[in-house]
Amino acid sequence: xxxxxxxxxxxxxxxxxxxxxxxxxxxxxxxxxxxxxxxxxxxxxxxxxxxxxxxxxxxxxxxxxxxxxxxxxxxxxxxxxxxxxxxxxxxxxxxxxxxxxxxxxxxxxxxxxxxxxxxxxxxxxxxxxxxxxxxxxxxxxxxxxxxxxxxxxxxxxxxxxxxxxxxxxxxxxxxxxxxxxxxxxxxxxxxxxxxxxxxxxxxxxxxxxxxxxxxxxxxxxxxxxxxxxxxxxxxxxxxxxxxxxxxxxxxxxxxxxxxxxxxxxxxxxxxxxxxxxxxxxxxxxxxxxxxxxxxxxxxxxxxxxxxxxxxxxxxxxxxxxxxxxxxxxxxxxxxxxxxxxxxxxxxxxxxxxxxxxxxxxxxxxxxxxxxxxxxxxxxxxxxxxxxxxxxxxxxxxxxxxxxxxxxxxxxxxx
Length: 414
Prior knowledge:
The protein has eleven helices and 16 strands. The protein is of the alpha/beta class. It folds into three domains: 3-78 and 107-161 and 268-345, FAD/NAD(P)-binding domain; 166-263, D-Amino Acid Oxidase, Chain A, domain 2; 360-412, no CATH class. The strands form three sheets. Strands 4, 5, 9, 10, 11, 12, 13, 14 and 16 form a nine-stranded mixed sheet that branches. Helix 5 runs antiparallel to helix 6 and helix 9 crosses helix 10. 43% of the residues are buried.
Protein backbone atom coordinates (compact mmCIF):
# COMPACT_ATOMS: atom_id res chain seq x y z
CA UNK A 1 0.00 0.00 0.00
CA UNK A 2 2.95 2.33 -0.40
CA UNK A 3 2.83 3.06 -4.11
CA UNK A 4 0.43 3.41 -7.04
CA UNK A 5 1.44 4.08 -10.62
CA UNK A 6 -0.78 5.78 -13.21
CA UNK A 7 0.21 5.41 -16.87
CA UNK A 8 -1.08 8.46 -18.76
CA UNK A 9 -1.51 12.07 -17.64
CA UNK A 10 -4.71 12.88 -19.48
CA UNK A 11 -8.06 13.51 -17.83
CA UNK A 12 -8.51 9.82 -16.95
CA UNK A 13 -5.02 9.52 -15.47
CA UNK A 14 -5.33 12.68 -13.43
CA UNK A 15 -8.74 11.65 -12.11
CA UNK A 16 -7.36 8.18 -11.28
CA UNK A 17 -4.49 9.73 -9.32
CA UNK A 18 -6.99 11.74 -7.29
CA UNK A 19 -9.06 8.60 -6.71
CA UNK A 20 -6.21 6.51 -5.29
CA UNK A 21 -4.22 9.24 -3.50
CA UNK A 22 -5.94 8.80 -0.09
CA UNK A 23 -4.93 5.12 0.00
CA UNK A 24 -1.21 5.28 -0.92
CA UNK A 25 1.85 7.03 0.37
CA UNK A 26 3.12 7.69 -3.16
CA UNK A 27 1.25 8.09 -6.44
CA UNK A 28 3.31 8.52 -9.60
CA UNK A 29 1.85 9.52 -12.97
CA UNK A 30 3.97 8.59 -16.01
CA UNK A 31 3.44 10.14 -19.43
CA UNK A 32 5.42 9.98 -22.66
CA UNK A 33 4.77 13.64 -23.56
CA UNK A 34 6.65 16.71 -22.45
CA UNK A 35 3.85 18.26 -20.42
CA UNK A 36 3.52 22.03 -20.92
CA UNK A 37 3.60 24.49 -18.03
CA UNK A 38 0.64 26.38 -19.49
CA UNK A 39 -2.65 25.40 -21.21
CA UNK A 40 -1.10 24.35 -24.55
CA UNK A 41 -1.88 21.43 -26.88
CA UNK A 42 0.36 18.37 -26.66
CA UNK A 43 1.24 15.60 -29.05
CA UNK A 44 -0.28 12.77 -27.02
CA UNK A 45 -3.79 14.24 -27.18
CA UNK A 46 -4.39 14.23 -30.90
CA UNK A 47 -7.88 15.72 -30.64
CA UNK A 48 -7.27 18.39 -28.03
CA UNK A 49 -8.16 21.18 -30.48
CA UNK A 50 -11.72 20.00 -30.94
CA UNK A 51 -14.67 20.84 -28.67
CA UNK A 52 -14.54 19.03 -25.31
CA UNK A 53 -17.53 19.19 -22.99
CA UNK A 54 -17.47 18.44 -19.27
CA UNK A 55 -20.91 17.02 -18.54
CA UNK A 56 -22.50 17.92 -15.23
CA UNK A 57 -21.99 14.41 -13.91
CA UNK A 58 -18.31 14.61 -14.77
CA UNK A 59 -17.97 17.94 -12.99
CA UNK A 60 -19.64 16.55 -9.87
CA UNK A 61 -17.38 13.47 -9.93
CA UNK A 62 -14.23 15.61 -10.19
CA UNK A 63 -15.46 17.85 -7.38
CA UNK A 64 -15.97 14.78 -5.19
CA UNK A 65 -12.48 13.49 -6.00
CA UNK A 66 -10.82 16.90 -5.62
CA UNK A 67 -12.91 19.45 -3.72
CA UNK A 68 -12.35 22.92 -5.11
CA UNK A 69 -12.07 21.81 -8.74
CA UNK A 70 -15.07 23.84 -9.86
CA UNK A 71 -13.63 26.99 -8.28
CA UNK A 72 -10.25 26.30 -9.90
CA UNK A 73 -11.83 25.86 -13.33
CA UNK A 74 -13.71 29.14 -13.01
CA UNK A 75 -10.56 30.93 -11.85
CA UNK A 76 -8.76 29.62 -14.94
CA UNK A 77 -11.35 31.16 -17.25
CA UNK A 78 -13.98 28.44 -17.69
CA UNK A 79 -17.23 29.82 -19.10
CA UNK A 80 -20.27 29.04 -16.96
CA UNK A 81 -23.11 28.13 -19.33
CA UNK A 82 -26.53 28.14 -17.69
CA UNK A 83 -29.02 25.46 -18.68
CA UNK A 84 -30.78 26.43 -20.77
CA UNK A 85 -30.64 30.25 -20.74
CA UNK A 86 -27.22 30.19 -22.41
CA UNK A 87 -27.88 27.23 -24.70
CA UNK A 88 -29.33 26.97 -28.20
CA UNK A 89 -29.83 23.40 -29.36
CA UNK A 90 -31.49 22.47 -32.66
CA UNK A 91 -32.16 18.74 -32.35
CA UNK A 92 -34.14 16.56 -34.72
CA UNK A 93 -35.41 19.65 -36.55
CA UNK A 94 -36.75 21.56 -33.54
CA UNK A 95 -35.31 24.00 -31.01
CA UNK A 96 -35.03 22.92 -27.39
CA UNK A 97 -37.28 24.89 -25.06
CA UNK A 98 -35.61 27.77 -23.22
CA UNK A 99 -36.13 27.49 -19.45
CA UNK A 100 -34.14 27.52 -16.20
CA UNK A 101 -33.18 23.94 -15.28
CA UNK A 102 -31.20 24.97 -12.21
CA UNK A 103 -27.92 23.63 -13.63
CA UNK A 104 -24.89 25.07 -15.36
CA UNK A 105 -21.84 23.61 -17.10
CA UNK A 106 -18.25 24.82 -17.23
CA UNK A 107 -16.76 25.03 -20.71
CA UNK A 108 -13.15 25.55 -21.73
CA UNK A 109 -10.54 24.04 -24.04
CA UNK A 110 -9.10 20.57 -23.43
CA UNK A 111 -5.58 21.91 -22.73
CA UNK A 112 -7.04 24.25 -20.11
CA UNK A 113 -9.01 21.44 -18.43
CA UNK A 114 -5.83 19.37 -18.22
CA UNK A 115 -3.74 22.27 -16.93
CA UNK A 116 -6.16 22.96 -14.07
CA UNK A 117 -6.48 19.29 -13.14
CA UNK A 118 -2.69 18.80 -13.14
CA UNK A 119 -2.39 21.60 -10.59
CA UNK A 120 -5.24 20.19 -8.53
CA UNK A 121 -3.67 16.72 -8.47
CA UNK A 122 -0.19 17.98 -7.59
CA UNK A 123 -1.69 19.98 -4.72
CA UNK A 124 -2.73 16.69 -3.08
CA UNK A 125 0.82 16.42 -1.82
CA UNK A 126 1.63 12.74 -2.45
CA UNK A 127 1.28 12.78 -6.27
CA UNK A 128 4.18 13.35 -8.66
CA UNK A 129 4.14 13.53 -12.46
CA UNK A 130 7.03 12.22 -14.57
CA UNK A 131 6.75 13.38 -18.16
CA UNK A 132 8.94 12.21 -21.06
CA UNK A 133 8.58 8.71 -19.60
CA UNK A 134 7.08 6.25 -22.09
CA UNK A 135 5.82 2.93 -20.74
CA UNK A 136 6.03 0.13 -23.29
CA UNK A 137 5.21 -3.00 -21.27
CA UNK A 138 2.90 -3.86 -18.41
CA UNK A 139 4.59 -4.01 -14.99
CA UNK A 140 5.57 -7.37 -13.60
CA UNK A 141 3.56 -8.75 -10.70
CA UNK A 142 4.33 -6.77 -7.58
CA UNK A 143 2.85 -4.85 -4.70
CA UNK A 144 2.05 -1.62 -6.55
CA UNK A 145 -1.35 -0.82 -8.03
CA UNK A 146 -1.10 0.21 -11.68
CA UNK A 147 -3.83 2.13 -13.51
CA UNK A 148 -3.69 2.20 -17.31
CA UNK A 149 -4.98 5.51 -18.66
CA UNK A 150 -3.37 5.51 -22.10
CA UNK A 151 -6.51 6.36 -24.03
CA UNK A 152 -8.22 5.28 -27.21
CA UNK A 153 -5.02 4.01 -28.80
CA UNK A 154 -3.89 1.90 -25.83
CA UNK A 155 -1.38 -0.84 -26.64
CA UNK A 156 -0.42 -2.00 -23.13
CA UNK A 157 -3.59 -4.08 -22.78
CA UNK A 158 -4.01 -4.91 -26.48
CA UNK A 159 -2.77 -8.49 -26.13
CA UNK A 160 -5.43 -9.51 -23.61
CA UNK A 161 -8.52 -11.54 -24.47
CA UNK A 162 -11.18 -8.89 -23.84
CA UNK A 163 -14.74 -9.19 -25.19
CA UNK A 164 -15.44 -6.01 -27.16
CA UNK A 165 -18.54 -4.31 -28.49
CA UNK A 166 -17.86 -2.25 -31.61
CA UNK A 167 -19.94 0.18 -33.66
CA UNK A 168 -18.75 1.37 -37.06
CA UNK A 169 -19.66 5.04 -36.77
CA UNK A 170 -17.33 6.60 -39.41
CA UNK A 171 -17.42 10.11 -37.95
CA UNK A 172 -15.29 12.89 -39.41
CA UNK A 173 -15.04 16.41 -38.07
CA UNK A 174 -13.05 19.58 -38.47
CA UNK A 175 -12.32 21.99 -35.63
CA UNK A 176 -10.60 25.29 -34.94
CA UNK A 177 -10.34 27.97 -32.28
CA UNK A 178 -11.60 31.42 -33.21
CA UNK A 179 -11.46 34.99 -31.97
CA UNK A 180 -14.96 36.39 -31.80
CA UNK A 181 -16.04 39.33 -33.95
CA UNK A 182 -16.85 42.47 -31.98
CA UNK A 183 -20.61 41.93 -31.98
CA UNK A 184 -20.27 38.61 -30.16
CA UNK A 185 -17.65 39.48 -27.56
CA UNK A 186 -18.83 38.55 -24.10
CA UNK A 187 -21.39 36.06 -25.40
CA UNK A 188 -21.26 32.77 -23.49
CA UNK A 189 -23.71 30.83 -25.64
CA UNK A 190 -23.30 27.14 -26.49
CA UNK A 191 -24.88 26.19 -29.84
CA UNK A 192 -25.53 22.71 -31.21
CA UNK A 193 -27.12 21.79 -34.52
CA UNK A 194 -28.10 18.10 -34.66
CA UNK A 195 -30.52 17.44 -37.55
CA UNK A 196 -32.72 14.38 -37.68
CA UNK A 197 -31.15 11.25 -39.22
CA UNK A 198 -30.36 10.37 -41.94
CA UNK A 199 -29.06 13.96 -42.27
CA UNK A 200 -25.52 13.42 -40.96
CA UNK A 201 -24.32 17.04 -40.75
CA UNK A 202 -23.99 18.70 -37.38
CA UNK A 203 -22.10 21.48 -35.69
CA UNK A 204 -21.06 22.82 -32.27
CA UNK A 205 -20.04 26.27 -31.03
CA UNK A 206 -18.45 26.17 -27.59
CA UNK A 207 -17.45 29.29 -25.62
CA UNK A 208 -14.02 28.88 -24.00
CA UNK A 209 -11.50 30.87 -21.98
CA UNK A 210 -10.22 34.26 -23.21
CA UNK A 211 -13.64 35.02 -24.72
CA UNK A 212 -12.96 32.73 -27.67
CA UNK A 213 -14.84 29.98 -29.48
CA UNK A 214 -14.05 26.40 -30.31
CA UNK A 215 -16.13 25.43 -33.35
CA UNK A 216 -16.51 21.87 -34.60
CA UNK A 217 -18.38 20.82 -37.74
CA UNK A 218 -19.14 17.15 -38.14
CA UNK A 219 -20.30 14.57 -40.64
CA UNK A 220 -20.54 10.81 -41.11
CA UNK A 221 -19.61 8.24 -43.71
CA UNK A 222 -18.81 9.77 -47.12
CA UNK A 223 -19.79 13.33 -46.22
CA UNK A 224 -16.53 15.16 -45.37
CA UNK A 225 -16.11 18.52 -43.63
CA UNK A 226 -13.66 20.81 -45.50
CA UNK A 227 -10.42 21.76 -43.75
CA UNK A 228 -10.00 25.11 -45.53
CA UNK A 229 -11.64 28.22 -44.06
CA UNK A 230 -13.87 29.03 -47.04
CA UNK A 231 -15.07 25.45 -47.28
CA UNK A 232 -15.59 25.29 -43.51
CA UNK A 233 -17.74 28.41 -43.62
CA UNK A 234 -19.63 27.06 -46.63
CA UNK A 235 -20.38 23.83 -44.78
CA UNK A 236 -21.79 25.86 -41.87
CA UNK A 237 -23.94 27.87 -44.30
CA UNK A 238 -25.54 24.62 -45.48
CA UNK A 239 -26.69 23.64 -41.98
CA UNK A 240 -30.46 23.97 -41.36
CA UNK A 241 -29.99 26.83 -38.86
CA UNK A 242 -28.07 30.08 -39.52
CA UNK A 243 -26.60 30.54 -36.02
CA UNK A 244 -23.27 28.79 -36.56
CA UNK A 245 -22.61 30.29 -40.00
CA UNK A 246 -23.43 33.76 -38.67
CA UNK A 247 -20.82 33.46 -35.93
CA UNK A 248 -18.24 32.06 -38.32
CA UNK A 249 -18.71 34.79 -40.93
CA UNK A 250 -16.36 37.32 -39.33
CA UNK A 251 -14.61 35.09 -36.76
CA UNK A 252 -10.83 34.92 -37.09
CA UNK A 253 -9.16 31.51 -36.78
CA UNK A 254 -6.40 31.45 -34.15
CA UNK A 255 -4.67 28.43 -35.66
CA UNK A 256 -5.06 25.84 -38.38
CA UNK A 257 -8.27 23.93 -38.99
CA UNK A 258 -7.72 20.32 -37.96
CA UNK A 259 -9.65 17.35 -39.34
CA UNK A 260 -10.18 14.05 -37.53
CA UNK A 261 -11.72 10.68 -38.36
CA UNK A 262 -13.06 8.14 -35.88
CA UNK A 263 -14.06 4.88 -37.53
CA UNK A 264 -15.32 2.97 -34.50
CA UNK A 265 -16.79 3.32 -31.05
CA UNK A 266 -15.57 0.51 -28.78
CA UNK A 267 -16.44 -0.88 -25.37
CA UNK A 268 -13.92 -3.34 -23.93
CA UNK A 269 -15.61 -5.51 -21.30
CA UNK A 270 -12.70 -5.96 -18.91
CA UNK A 271 -15.09 -7.22 -16.23
CA UNK A 272 -15.38 -10.37 -18.41
CA UNK A 273 -11.73 -10.51 -19.53
CA UNK A 274 -9.13 -13.14 -18.77
CA UNK A 275 -5.44 -12.72 -18.13
CA UNK A 276 -5.57 -9.28 -16.50
CA UNK A 277 -3.52 -8.92 -13.33
CA UNK A 278 -5.76 -8.03 -10.36
CA UNK A 279 -3.50 -5.05 -9.66
CA UNK A 280 -3.62 -3.63 -13.20
CA UNK A 281 -6.75 -1.56 -13.81
CA UNK A 282 -7.88 0.14 -17.04
CA UNK A 283 -9.71 3.47 -16.95
CA UNK A 284 -11.27 6.00 -19.31
CA UNK A 285 -10.92 5.47 -23.06
CA UNK A 286 -8.99 2.24 -22.42
CA UNK A 287 -12.37 0.81 -21.42
CA UNK A 288 -14.74 2.71 -23.68
CA UNK A 289 -14.31 5.23 -26.45
CA UNK A 290 -17.41 6.88 -27.85
CA UNK A 291 -18.37 9.08 -30.72
CA UNK A 292 -16.28 12.08 -29.58
CA UNK A 293 -18.76 14.65 -30.83
CA UNK A 294 -21.13 13.65 -27.99
CA UNK A 295 -18.66 15.01 -25.43
CA UNK A 296 -18.89 12.06 -23.02
CA UNK A 297 -15.27 10.93 -22.71
CA UNK A 298 -13.94 13.20 -19.95
CA UNK A 299 -17.03 12.70 -17.80
CA UNK A 300 -17.03 8.91 -18.18
CA UNK A 301 -13.35 8.90 -17.17
CA UNK A 302 -14.22 10.92 -14.06
CA UNK A 303 -17.02 8.45 -13.32
CA UNK A 304 -14.59 5.54 -13.67
CA UNK A 305 -12.24 7.27 -11.23
CA UNK A 306 -15.04 7.74 -8.71
CA UNK A 307 -15.90 4.03 -9.10
CA UNK A 308 -12.24 3.22 -8.40
CA UNK A 309 -12.23 5.22 -5.18
CA UNK A 310 -15.49 3.58 -4.08
CA UNK A 311 -14.00 0.16 -4.80
CA UNK A 312 -10.95 0.93 -2.65
CA UNK A 313 -13.24 2.05 0.17
CA UNK A 314 -15.34 -1.11 -0.18
CA UNK A 315 -12.58 -3.73 -0.21
CA UNK A 316 -10.28 -1.99 2.22
CA UNK A 317 -6.81 -0.58 1.80
CA UNK A 318 -5.07 -3.87 2.56
CA UNK A 319 -6.86 -6.02 -0.01
CA UNK A 320 -5.56 -4.82 -3.39
CA UNK A 321 -6.09 -8.16 -5.12
CA UNK A 322 -9.85 -7.68 -4.67
CA UNK A 323 -10.04 -4.17 -6.09
CA UNK A 324 -10.46 -5.21 -9.73
CA UNK A 325 -13.39 -7.50 -8.96
CA UNK A 326 -15.22 -4.61 -7.32
CA UNK A 327 -14.05 -1.77 -9.56
CA UNK A 328 -14.47 -3.22 -13.07
CA UNK A 329 -18.25 -3.97 -12.80
CA UNK A 330 -18.80 -0.48 -11.37
CA UNK A 331 -16.78 1.10 -14.17
CA UNK A 332 -18.80 -0.96 -16.65
CA UNK A 333 -22.03 0.46 -15.20
CA UNK A 334 -20.69 4.00 -15.75
CA UNK A 335 -19.82 3.11 -19.33
CA UNK A 336 -23.19 1.46 -19.93
CA UNK A 337 -25.17 4.62 -19.27
CA UNK A 338 -23.12 6.71 -21.69
CA UNK A 339 -22.86 3.90 -24.25
CA UNK A 340 -26.62 3.36 -24.30
CA UNK A 341 -27.26 7.01 -25.12
CA UNK A 342 -24.48 7.30 -27.69
CA UNK A 343 -25.31 4.00 -29.38
CA UNK A 344 -28.97 4.97 -29.68
CA UNK A 345 -27.98 8.14 -31.51
CA UNK A 346 -25.35 6.40 -33.68
CA UNK A 347 -27.58 3.48 -34.64
CA UNK A 348 -30.33 5.76 -35.92
CA UNK A 349 -28.10 6.32 -38.94
CA UNK A 350 -28.75 3.39 -41.32
CA UNK A 351 -25.10 3.15 -42.40
CA UNK A 352 -23.79 2.67 -38.85
CA UNK A 353 -22.35 -0.84 -38.57
CA UNK A 354 -23.36 -2.76 -35.47
CA UNK A 355 -26.11 -4.88 -33.99
CA UNK A 356 -29.34 -3.07 -33.22
CA UNK A 357 -30.72 -4.29 -29.88
CA UNK A 358 -34.00 -6.17 -29.75
CA UNK A 359 -36.86 -3.71 -29.83
CA UNK A 360 -34.68 -0.95 -31.29
CA UNK A 361 -37.55 0.63 -33.23
CA UNK A 362 -39.60 0.87 -30.04
CA UNK A 363 -36.60 2.40 -28.26
CA UNK A 364 -36.37 5.07 -30.97
CA UNK A 365 -40.05 5.86 -30.51
CA UNK A 366 -39.53 6.16 -26.77
CA UNK A 367 -36.58 8.49 -27.28
CA UNK A 368 -38.64 10.67 -29.61
CA UNK A 369 -41.49 10.73 -27.10
CA UNK A 370 -39.14 11.89 -24.35
CA UNK A 371 -37.77 14.60 -26.65
CA UNK A 372 -41.28 15.88 -27.41
CA UNK A 373 -42.33 15.68 -23.76
CA UNK A 374 -39.26 17.67 -22.77
CA UNK A 375 -40.44 20.53 -24.96
CA UNK A 376 -43.79 20.60 -23.14
CA UNK A 377 -42.96 19.74 -19.54
CA UNK A 378 -40.15 21.30 -17.47
CA UNK A 379 -39.83 18.20 -15.27
CA UNK A 380 -39.18 15.99 -18.30
CA UNK A 381 -36.73 18.55 -19.71
CA UNK A 382 -34.81 18.50 -16.42
CA UNK A 383 -34.82 14.70 -16.25
CA UNK A 384 -33.56 14.44 -19.84
CA UNK A 385 -30.72 16.83 -19.04
CA UNK A 386 -29.76 14.94 -15.88
CA UNK A 387 -29.75 11.55 -17.59
CA UNK A 388 -27.84 12.89 -20.60
CA UNK A 389 -25.31 14.53 -18.29
CA UNK A 390 -24.75 11.36 -16.23
CA UNK A 391 -26.26 12.90 -13.10
CA UNK A 392 -29.06 10.31 -12.92
CA UNK A 393 -29.16 6.73 -14.28
CA UNK A 394 -31.11 5.72 -17.37
CA UNK A 395 -33.54 3.88 -15.10
CA UNK A 396 -34.82 7.26 -13.83
CA UNK A 397 -36.73 7.56 -17.13
CA UNK A 398 -38.80 4.48 -16.31
CA UNK A 399 -40.53 5.59 -13.11
CA UNK A 400 -41.90 8.71 -11.45
CA UNK A 401 -44.06 11.63 -12.65
CA UNK A 402 -41.78 12.60 -15.54
CA UNK A 403 -41.79 9.02 -16.86
CA UNK A 404 -45.58 9.03 -16.85
CA UNK A 405 -45.59 12.20 -18.94
CA UNK A 406 -43.27 10.53 -21.47
CA UNK A 407 -45.55 7.49 -21.62
CA UNK A 408 -48.51 9.80 -22.16
CA UNK A 409 -46.71 11.47 -25.06
CA UNK A 410 -45.85 8.11 -26.59
CA UNK A 411 -49.48 6.94 -26.41
CA UNK A 412 -50.64 10.17 -28.04
CA UNK A 413 -48.64 9.42 -31.21
CA UNK A 414 -49.77 5.83 -31.61
